[in-house]
Design goal:
The protein is an alpha/beta fold. The protein has 2 domains: about 250 residues, Aspartate Aminotransferase, domain 2; about 110 residues, Aspartate Aminotransferase, domain 1, CATH 3.90.1150. The protein contains 10 helices and 11 strands. The strands form 2 sheets. The chain has a 7-stranded mixed β-sheet with strand order 1-7-6-5-4-2-3, sandwiched between helices. A 4-stranded antiparallel β-sheet has the order 8-9-11-10. The longest helix has 23 residues. One of its GO terms (biological process) is anthranilate metabolic process. It holds the Pfam family KYNU_C.
Amino acid sequence: MDWGKDLISSWNRKWLSLENTISIKISNILKCNENEIYVGSSTSENLYKLLKSILINNSKIKSIISDNLNFPSDNYVAEGIAKDFKDVTFKLLDYGNEAEANIDKLKEFISKNNGILILSLVSYKSSYRYPIKEINDYCENNNSIVIWDISHAIGAIDIDFHNTNTKYAVGCTYKYLNGGPGSPAIIYVNEKEQNILKTPIRGWFSHNSPFDFSNNYEESNSMSRFKSGSPNIIQLSALEKGLDIILEAGTIKLEKKSIELFNLFNKIFNSHLSEKGYNLITPIKDSDRGSHITISHKESWRISKCLSSPKGRDKKILIDFRPNKFIRISLTPLYTSFEDIYNLTKRLFDIVKRKEYMNHDNEKPTLT
């Protein structure tokens, strides 16, 4: 509507300020300052820009470390960047399981490999949640930096960047923030750390005065340094409505409901599902868990097909399958109901009891 009516005059009327409007709303969700947030690009691009900008401006850093619970894309980015620097190595800590971190092992790994640590606040597979302040404080005392990926956390659990001493983070907005696929990602940098950073991707909008069209590059001294091209107005406009709903509900209340949804699931799981061969992978303790549930079964894939593509009159239930054996259930507290939990657990029980999975083959599509 803006483009059809006002064409390029929409830039001055609304569009140029839209990124700032979104940044303010995200800063309220993360309990940080609006000048500490950049909105745009994808999570992988933002991790690339942030990680490389830290390395460019700190030649003493020789290690980038991560663990096997981190989202693979983050590790791809980190390993690739390490190869761009002669003396920087990428190292991965493997806990020997896909469910939870061993914090003592992680601390030992940090102490032996001071540098930059990249972790997902909530693990994409198991929903394990790291003790964010404990890790931040430990790294600060051991000459290390943490970059948190909050993609599987923001909008579903309460996050307080300032009270947890968080300095750097990236994340997406298309999950619990309701932006949908393709919505812009974010970068967070505590304002005390911003002056030492220089963007690795110089672009029109990262210039201090982009509309002067100068031939000499002068980098913005704000989070705008991470911008490159024009902002995606359609995506930002759609995202704003999703953020408004989150802010109206409040992340404290959303996390409370997420806990209640899990407790109901866990109660039914213990009384009915464990006897049917299901295993609960997600941590039980509230502070150790995000807002999705992961279970496994020897027939996980075919059970997933029964849920998402029922052959009878049963309603379709959308879940995620994660290789090689995990069924991932999203507890989106804004609209997941307690009735939804009951219906899901009943279907999980019935599928195994009736051996419905025998009606499906093991063929997998590209996206599961």
